[in-house]
Design a protein that fits this description.
There is one protein chain. The chain has 532 residues and is mainly alpha-helical. The chain has 19 helices and eleven strands. The strands form five sheets. Strands 2-7-6 form a three-stranded antiparallel β-sheet. A two-stranded antiparallel sheet has the order 1-3. A two-stranded antiparallel ribbon has the order 4-5. A hairpin with a 5-residue loop joins strand 8 and strand 9. Helix 5 packs antiparallel against helix 6 and helix 6 runs antiparallel to helix 7. The chain is globular.
Amino acid sequence: MKHIYIALIGTAFLLGSCDDFLNTMPDNRAEIDTEAKVTSILVSAYPDKTPVLMMEYSSDNVVDHGPQYAVNYKDQEEIYLWSDITSDGNDDPRYMWQTYYRAIAAANQAIQAIYDLGDPASLAPQKAEALMCRAYAHFVLANVFCLPYNPETADKDMGIPYSEKPETQVIVKYERGTMTQLYEKINADIEAALPYISDDVYTVPKYHFNKKAAYAFATRFNLFYVKPDKSNYQKVVEYATQVLGSNPDRVLRQMSNYIPLGAGDVTNAYVQASENCNLLIIPAYSAAGRIGSGSGPRYNHGREITTYETYWAEGPWGSSGSGSFLILGRKLYGSNQTVRFPKLDEFWEYTDKTSGTGYAHIVFVPFTTNETLLCRAEAYTFLEKYEEAAADLNSWQVTNCLSSYVDDNGMPHTLQTLTRESINEFWNGIKYCPVPSMADGGSDRTIKKELHPQGFTVAPGEQENFIQCVLHMRRIETMHDGQRWCDIKRYGIEVAHNRYGLATDILKVGDLRRAIQLPSDVIDAGLAANPR
C-alpha cells in the first residue's frame, strides 16, 4: 500500500499496486461514515516527504568542494549537476511524486466522504482543510516539476495532472495540462477553502492547515500567480495581513531567544508549535538534515558562499562577518565545507535499537510569519508602496539582528532603522555578482544577482533595490529549506555550479532544467516528460 496512488497517474504501470488499491480502497471508503472518521483520514492528506533536498541542491546555495570530500548519497551529485535524477530514495522524484499524489488521494477521499454524508455544515472545516491540502500538494509538485508560472507562456507550459476525485479504475488516462489550467484549479481550491478554515477542530492546530497557515499559503501562491493588472499583489497584501496582524514584530521569530542555545536546542526550539512564527509543522522522511550537518561535504553550503553571499556577507543591516548584527551569522556550525544554521537537523526513528537501524526524519516548517512578511514586502514593492515595504523589511531586520554590539576592537555599533532611503543607498552601492564568479570562488561575488523576471517586470532603480533586499533576506530566512530555488526560477537568476574535472555549468535564463525531470516510471507509463 505504500506506493498505491502513483499507479493512477499515468496510462498503465505498477499494476500490482493498482490491484491492491482496487481491492482495498472501496471498503475503506465505505467505512468513512462519520465526521470523526473524515477528520481522521485528513492526517494522510499531509505528505511525509519533502522536496527540500532537490530544491536546495539545485540552487546557488551549494558548491562543489572537490573529489577529496565524500558524496554519501548519489542524489546529492545528480541534483547538483542538474542531471535527471535516477536515485530512488525518500528525497528523490519518484518518492516525491508518489507521496504527494497519495496525499492528494486522501484529500479527495475525504471530500467524497463529506459529499456522501450530505455535505453538512458541520463538516465545512474538514472540507476546507481537504481542499487546502489538495491545492498545496499540487502547488509543491508544480514548483518541483514545472517551469515557474509565467502569464505570457502559461497557456503552453506543461503543468501536472490535477486530481479532483477518488479513482476507481486501474487504467486512467491523464494529461499534464497547462500551467494556466493548473494554477486556475489551485486557486479555485484555495478560494473555496479560505472562508471555512477553522482552528476549532484541531487538538494541535499547527499540525494542520489552521487559519494562519491557510492564509500564508494563499499569500505565497498569489505572489507566484502573476497577473498583468497586479491584482495578485493586492491579494498578497490582504492575505498576509490576516496572518501578521497590525503589529508584525509580535508574531515574528525572535532570534535573540536563540543566542544562548546550542545546536541541538536550536533545532528543537525552531520547530516548536509554541513559536508564534511557526504556522504549519510537517514531519518528513528525509536525509536533508543529515546531509546539511556534514554527511556528504563535497556538495554543500560552505564557507565561501557564507562569506560572500549569505550569512557573513555585508547586508543592508551593515557590517559583515561572524560577529556582526545578524544573529543567524553568529549561530553557525559545521566545517569549511558544511556551514549550517541547525534548524533542519535530523531526528532519528529507531526500528531496531540493537542494530541501530531506523528512519531519518526532519521536522519541516513550510509556512512561517517571517516568510509571509517578506512576501508582503515584495507585493508592496510591486504596488510601489515603498514606505510600507520598508517597514516590513525593517521588521524582519529588527527581529533577526542585534540592536547593538561591541566589536573585537572595542568599538560599539548600533543597528540603524531600515528606511526607503537607506535601502536605496545600500543596493545602489552593490555591484552585480558575475555569474562565473559563483563557480570559481572569486572574491568579486556579491549578494546582488541580475534579474530576468519570468512574466513580469522589475523597474530599474528603486523597485529593483527593494526586490534585491527582499530576495536577499528571503535567501537567508529560507536557507536549507529549498525556497531559494523558487526565487531563482521566478526571477530567472542565472546560477553557475562548479564541477571538479568538468567545465562549469551555468543554468541560464530559459534553461529547461529549471523544471526537474519527472520520475522515469511515470514517463514510461505515458505521461509527457519535461523537454530538455
